[in-house]
């Protein structure tokens, strides 16, 4: 750890500390909100979960077990204490600790999110760059129109509709790929596609604009004046200059991509956190919903924080995030 | 541009018509759908349960035998209503939260901004799901959840817009005049941000529609027996394997509606703003026509260089033309030659075509400009063909701050030249790079070659550019305004270095500058350009006394020296050069020339050699006084 006086000279340490502060406040807000949720829901949450036929004794016993009969500050205190020990309470529906349910389901969600993210980066950057190179300086207007048109249409498709379309096409019509459950590598294909197609369209569109900006820079003219082979011109001289901003925007999409799993998992009956969350909401299993909201929220905040700090380290002059 | 004007312009584009028609059709279906098809949609038919699509039931029937197509039409109204409600909630909430910082005191304002920042850090979907749980699963819960869910995004937009307007002079003026805060928002800020906000609202509407469908699809929005498109999709999803059309129908309705909203927003915002790069309209009609008039001038010029048994020129440009789409001719029949080892300067004001001439010689003219010439030869090859040039031609550009790649080290940017063109391996190439950096007097080149351009000063970067040119064996160095971006002492160093390079390497130099004083420090011969043409060519030694063209005279007269009376204003050339595409019949300089006659205004003067070393394009060249002529050789 650097000493405090150091921070004054190193702008990105100051920046990181400030972002760390913001992250802490955001996490505090998230924890408070998820605690408050169970008290904000309309009606009696325990009664709702157990059903109208449950005996008053059972409801009372359950409320006592959840600590709902104690005072609010008291409850919040013990909520925090338990949270620090990794205890997220007991799921009403599954009759097992929320933490166990989450650790059982989270990996499946992380897998498709991570694969979809990697796919997005690997596909969108070359695609956007190629489009930028081909349409530079107003060349090939028709290709430009087709690219911008297609990507902007695809980018507004919500994941769940893409998922339904993919199921209808590849699963039902062509019968090429499995359309539900997590069974073998092929079962990953459609969920990952459903998650990645939108971000690929959005990111490749941005990469194209970035490519056009970079190709217009004076240093690209210098590189052309050196009569370098096309490959070196684009890969060595253009690519590094558009990578930072592209990766940043890609990273910012990761948080949205992660929550997109909620919808996609429900289409494909993917045994992840998202499907569990929707089930928990419809079953009014509030402790479980609480835990999942906490996990999703924390992951999203951590991702954004990591992207911010990475960007500050790699490109101290960047103003992308400070706009 | 007013909104109605924008609307009118939008309706004249095909895309605009499609978008507007789509929205109109949606509204009609939303209004009449429940009136006409409600009965069909609700009719339970146990004889037709779960049928596939047919002429009678386009998208088939559901589990109770109800017609899905009719249900989709009926659901249009509820879907759009819910979208509208949620959007209104989000817009009002976002507007209040967004304008609060402007109304509140500084501390409260910071608090509100911080709150918005905190909320915006969470993914919208997660926020909406959380709110949906809190408000209870169902139609109203979903409307509230989505409405409030979009508040942070909306508030951020309004905040940014309001902040940009609040800084404007007229708002400050209103504040000084004591206009109240509320009045300030309603009268001064709101009208100025209404337009971007209304466009954003359309796009938000599309997002809300999709989000709502998503919630209903998850079973957390509209509950049976009510139905919107998302609910229909939810009910039909398990049949996607058997009768995909019944699930795809509602999905397509959602997508098309979302697209229509987006399209309207897009088209409206584009109707007002600029639509990409459009070539300037063709006004310079003369430029498109063949130019027989120019022929004589070039023949004369070609003749001037060929005789006297001079060595074959290193660079020979014959009637170079750079044309932009639309017919604007930026460089017009420029002929130019540079002998081996010679230093030639091209001077002229901005827009005279001097930089384009240099770029054309190097084959670097930016698309979509077109380069034509009777011939360009450099060292025996055509440089515009971009082959075989190798390293014999080096370029030094105007802005050293922007001309080096910020992502690569200095050493790498130099060494790659040797790797590509000289076949060096990495170590050899880097050794040569360090050696070249030392040659341009970069201190500690071993260490500095590992640095990035950001760590170099402007002068060091320009010297690096020169070193880059020296990586090969340049026979010509083209320096395009090499000192313009540098301060005076650094300018002198760079010029000295250029002279030095010339001496040690024997390379010719073609130097482009607007500054006649800079050119005369390095070059033996000066070519003066005006409005894309060469107007005069003469030895540098004749600049002070032997100029023949009134423009060159005026340029020299505009350079202050030690004897200039500092109490007088600096000398300028009255008038301005012709704008790009401006049609000039006759001499382009005539409107600014004190010697211009009627002939100058109607007939363009051709470039003629006055003696072997000079050429001038003027009907009334200034005759050099006799006593001074004896001094010139």
Give a verbal description of the structure.
Chain A is mostly helical and 323 residues long. Chain A contains 13 helices and no strands. In chain A, 77% of the residues lie in helices and 0% in strands. Chain A is globular, with a radius of gyration of 24 Å. Chain A has a domain at 101-314: MetI-like fold (Orthogonal Bundle), CATH 1.10.3720.10. Chain B is α/β, with parallel strands linked by helices. Among the domains of chain B are: 77-261, MetI-like fold; 398-472, no CATH class. Helices cover 51% and strands 10% of the residues of chain B. Chain B has 24 helices and twelve strands. Chain B has helices at residues 3-10, 14-42, 68-103, 106-120, 124-135, 139-149, 151-166, 169-176, 181-217, 229-236, 244-272, 285-288, 293-306, 354-361, 400-403, 410-421, 426-439, 445-448, 458-469, 488-505, 516-522, 550-557, 598-602, 626-629, and strands at 315-323, 329-338, 343-347, 370-372, 375-378, 393-396, 476-480, 508-513, 525-530, 533-539, 608-611, 614-616. In chain B, the strands form two sheets. Chain B has an eight-stranded mixed β-sheet with strand order 6-7-8-3-9-10-12-11, sandwiched between helices. In chain B, strands 1, 2, 4 and 5 form a four-stranded antiparallel β-sheet that branches. In chain B, β7 (476-480), α20 and β8 (508-513) form a beta-alpha-beta unit. In chain B, α4 (106-120) crosses α7. Chain B is elongated and about 105 Å long. The chains are: A mainly alpha (323), B alpha/beta (633). The interface between A and B is large, with 69 and 68 residues.
């Amino acid at each position: 750890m650097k000493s405090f006086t150091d921070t004054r000279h190193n702008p990105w340490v100051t920046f990181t500390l400030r972002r760390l502060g913001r992250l802490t406040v955001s996490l505090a807000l998230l924890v408070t909100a998820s605690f408050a949720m169970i008290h904000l829901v309309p009606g009696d949450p325990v009664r709702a979960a157990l059903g109208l036929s449950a005996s008053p004794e059972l409801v009372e016993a359950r409320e006592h077990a959840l600590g709902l009969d104690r005072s609010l500050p008291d409850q919040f205190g013990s909520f925090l204490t338990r949270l620090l020990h990794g205890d997220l309470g007991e799921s009403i529906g599954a009759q097992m600790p929320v933490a166990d349910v989450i650790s059982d389901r989270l990996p499946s969600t992380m897998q498709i999110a991570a694969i979809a993210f990697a796919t997005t980066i690997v596909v969108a950057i070359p695609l956007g760059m190629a489009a930028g190179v081909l349409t530079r300086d107003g060349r090939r207007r028709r290709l430009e129109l087709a690219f911008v048109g297609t990507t902007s249409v695809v980018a507004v498709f919500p994941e769940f509709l893409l998922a339904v379309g993919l199921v209808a096409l590849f699963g039902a019509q062509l019968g090429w790929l499995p359309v539900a459950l997590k069974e073998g590598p092929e079962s990953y294909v459609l969920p990952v596609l459903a998650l990645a197609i939108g971000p690929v369209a959005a990111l490749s569109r941005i990469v194209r604009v970035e490519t056009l900006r970079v190709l217009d820079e004076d240093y690209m003219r210098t590189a052309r004046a050196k009569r370098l082979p096309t490959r070196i011109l684009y890969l060595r001289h253009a690519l590094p200059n558009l990578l930072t901003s592209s990766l940043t925007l890609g990273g910012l999409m990761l948080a949205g991509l992660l929550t997109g799993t909620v919808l996609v998992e429900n289409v494909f009956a993917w045994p992840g956190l998202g499907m569990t969350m929707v089930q928990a909401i419809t079953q009014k299993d509030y402790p479980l919903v609480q835990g999942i909201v906490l996990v999703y929220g924390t992951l999203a905040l951590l991702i954004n924080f990591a992207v911010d700090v990475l960007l500050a380290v790699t490109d101290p002059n960047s103003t992308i995030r400070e706009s | 541009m007013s909104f109605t004007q924008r609307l009118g312009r939008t309706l004249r584009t095909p895309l605009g018509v499609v978008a507007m028609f789509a929205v109109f059709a949606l509204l009609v279906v939303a209004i009449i759908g429940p009136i006409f098809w409600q009965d069909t949609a609700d009719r339970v038919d146990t004889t037709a349960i779960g049928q596939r699509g047919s002429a009678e039931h386009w998208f088939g029937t559901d589990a109770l035998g109800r017609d899905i197509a009719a249900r989709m039409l009926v659901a249009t109204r509820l879907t759009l209503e819910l979208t509208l409600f949620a959007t209104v909630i989000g817009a009002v909430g976002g507007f209040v939260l967004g304008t609060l910082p402007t109304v509140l005191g500084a501390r409260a304002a910071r608090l509100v901004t911080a709150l918005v920042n905190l909320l915006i850090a969470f993914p919208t979907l997660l926020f909406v799901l959380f709110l949906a749980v809190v408000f209870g699963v169902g139609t109203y819960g979903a409307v509230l959840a989505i409405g409030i869910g979009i508040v942070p995004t909306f508030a951020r937009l309004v905040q940014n817009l309001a902040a940009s307007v609040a800084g404007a002079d007229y708002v400050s003026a209103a504040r000084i005049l004591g206009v109240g805060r509320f009045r300030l928002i309603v009268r001064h800020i709101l009208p100025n941000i209404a337009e971007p906000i209304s466009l954003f609202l359309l796009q938000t509407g599309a997002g809300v529609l999709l989000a709502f469908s998503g919630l209903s699809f998850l079973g957390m929005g509209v509950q049976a027996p009510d139905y919107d498109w998302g609910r229909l999709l939810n009910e039909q999803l398990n049949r996607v394997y058997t009768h995909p059309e019944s699930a795809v129908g509602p999905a397509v309705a959602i997508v098309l509606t979302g697209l229509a909203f987006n399209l309207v927003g897009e088209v409206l915002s584009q109707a007002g703003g600029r639509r990409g790069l459009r070539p300037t309209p063709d006004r310079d009609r003369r430029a498109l026509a063949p130019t027989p008039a120019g022929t004589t001038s070039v023949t004369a010029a070609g003749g001037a260089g060929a005789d006297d048994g001079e060595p074959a020129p290193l660079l020979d440009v014959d009637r170079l033309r750079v044309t932009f789409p639309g017919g604007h001719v930026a460089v017009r029949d420029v002929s130019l030659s540079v002998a081996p080892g010679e230093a030639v300067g091209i001077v002229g004001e901005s827009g005279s075509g001097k930089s384009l001439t240099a770029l054309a010689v190097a084959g670097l003219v930016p698309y979509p400009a077109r380069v034509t010439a009777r011939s360009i030869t450099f060292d025996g090859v055509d440089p515009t063909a971009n082959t075989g040039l190798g390293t014999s031609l080096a370029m030094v550009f105007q802005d050293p701050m922007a001309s080096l790649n910020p992502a690569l080290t200095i050493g790498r940017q130099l060494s790659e030249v040797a790797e590509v063109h000289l076949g060096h391996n990495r170590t050899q190439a880097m050794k040569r790079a360090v050696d070249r950096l030392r040659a341009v007097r970069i201190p500690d080149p071993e260490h500095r070659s590992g640095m990035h351009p950001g760590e170099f000063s402007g002068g060091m970067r320009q010297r690096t550019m020169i070193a880059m040119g020296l990586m090969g064996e340049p026979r010509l160095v083209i320096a395009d305004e090499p000192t313009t971006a540098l301060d005076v002492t650094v300018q002198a160093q760079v010029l000295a270095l250029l002279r030095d390079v010339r001496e040690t390497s024997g390379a010719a130099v073609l130097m482009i500058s607007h500054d006649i004083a800079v050119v005369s420090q390095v070059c033996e011969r000066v070519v003066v350009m005006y409005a894309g043409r060469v107007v005069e060519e003469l030895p540098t030694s004749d600049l002070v006394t032997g100029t023949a063209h009134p423009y060159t005279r005026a340029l020299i007269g505009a350079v202050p020296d030690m004897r200039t009376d500092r109490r007088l204003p600096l000398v300028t050339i009255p008038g301005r050069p012709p704008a790009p595409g401006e049609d000039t019949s006759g001499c382009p300089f005539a409107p600014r020339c004190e010697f211009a006659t009627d002939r100058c205004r109607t007939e363009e003067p051709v470039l003629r050699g006055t003696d072997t070393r000079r050429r001038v394009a003027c009907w009334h060249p200034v005759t050099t006084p006799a006593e001074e002529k004896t001094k010139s050789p």
